[in-house]
Amino acid sequence: MNSDLIVFLVLSLVAIATALGMLFSRNAVYSALFLVLNFVTVAIFYLLLGAPFIAMSQITVYAGAIMVLFLFVIMLLGAENLAPTSDLPWQKPLARLLSVILVVETIYLLFSRARTDLVVTAPDASLNTMESLREMAMELFSSYLLPFEITSILLLVAMVGAIVLSRREKGEK
Amino acid sequence: MVPVDYYIALSAILFIIGALGVLSRRNPLIIFMSIELMLNAANLAFVAFARAHNTFSGQIFVFFVIAVAAAEVAVGLALIVEIFKAKKNIDIDEMNSLKG
Known about the structure:
The complex is a heterodimer of chains A (173) and B (100). Chain A has helices spanning 3-24, 28-48, 52-77, 91-112, 129-140, 145-166; one strand at 119-120. Chain A is mainly alpha-helical. The radius of gyration of chain A is 21 Å and the shape is extended. The model of chain A has no long low-confidence stretch (mean pLDDT 85). Chain B is an all-alpha fold and 100 residues long. Chain B is elongated.
């Protein structure tokens, strides 16, 4: 067993455990904090996969900005513990049934399909991070320039949308 | 050396956990967080394949997915706050105003 595999297994245990913690926490604040831990673990995976820029974006955008927004809204609304007010008794069993079907399907797919012999090697210690970053930027701003510009428009639309939604009309108290 | 299959398996497990959250939880904020988890699982598979094929396209896709997720969260959370202001409650079963 090589060291890469050990690091991978330990990190995946942490990732799965934090994801399950997110799913089963009664308190939404704990869920959000578990999810932050999960995002940081995935960022470490990105570093192992030789994607330092994506790892840093993951931490600043997901673990930083998005989860802080989530925590703000949870605390603002006092939505830590919502009392179950269910008037659809068939919904929970149906959700469980669908979940079990999904799990079985995925396990079947994982074990039945033809295996690839692709492997992921750990990033070389001598690899120049700046060089790979430059190559990625070259590709981003040449082949993917149009999607990049569309993304900037999308972010502008989201910003305007959020402002319009949370703005108070005149005369409304 | 880690086979890319292991990364795909991990990605699938995280995706399933996110889907379970969407199906079984009632709190819309936790459903939202589960969607983020599913996006993350897909991103992990993208980066693993990008590494295995030695290309940057996968990483650039992940960059776009992160930007779209940020936009989605900004609008989604604003909507949840608005619904709370209107109904004083954000239970997912109460959000049926558009029902005919």
